[in-house]
């Protein structure tokens, strides 16, 4: 009799077959949505690449391709962190100012304090993480919205850069410092290797760890995640710390490229970073996004900007183009979400 009761309770605890099938179907559809987004972004990247190949004889030169990789590295590293943030339906508008402040302070550690450049890179990265921690605490402890929190941090960090440098570049770093932003290993640019390694790590975190599962859960339905026992505040804070660390590290890459600390670096960078994530399929409504899609978006943005320079397109028109691309990406996101909602009924 006891065995029968136990068997009955076990059966009762199991979800109905219909629910299991519906859950599997929903996950499959979400996966298909991600694949479609990546294919669309990849197709756009291929089209732009082919067009610029014929439009400019300089585009396919080794030096220009190296420049594209170096430029993309900064955007891609920050965009990897932004993918986590956007998946939780958050936003970080302070990444450009964070990168500038972290890069300048990292260089000042080398020039003014005599810190070895590898440790200075670590120091600049940690400074970025501290900025991310402040953002996370303000959002989760003070209950400020991500938009207001990071908008304020954008102003604070940019102001601190000017205070520390008097708006003058910081010079005097050793030549070895350029390895991070300009070096190669067996002919492969170090910035590209850095992006690939960070992307693989981020992909594994999103798809194979508790942090990744919780990131998607928080963005898909925050209240359901809370009721499920997920410590939302703790993980959200961690995500903003990760974003800050990556912004700080990207700031050091940028400083390494020019072998100096530039206080004006990163102005408008948040636009490219958000565009890269959204173009790659990350939904501003939360719950969707992939690292591969973000990388495709980052390279697309960099190639568009590089091609605009080669074709002598005014820089103001470049910003217009990127803004329109963001509009199209968000419109596509809303369109596919509506189609997904109808198909799920």
From TrEMBL:
InterPro entries the UniProt entry points to: ABC_transp_permease
Topology in the lipid bilayer: Multi-pass membrane protein
Domain of life: Bacteria
One Gene Ontology CC term in the entry: plasma membrane
Parts of the chain that traverse the membrane: 35-59, 65-86, 93-111, 117-139, 151-172, 184-206, 235-253, 265-285, 315-335
Coiled coil segments of this chain: none
Primary localization: membrane
UniProt keyword annotations, A-Z: Cell inner membrane, Cell membrane, Membrane, Transmembrane, Transmembrane helix, Transport
Annotated PANTHER family: ABC TRANSPORTER PERMEASE PROTEIN YPHD-RELATED, ABC TRANSPORTER PERMEASE PROTEIN YPHD-RELATED-RELATED
Protein name: Sugar ABC transporter permease
Protein source organism: Dictyobacter arantiisoli
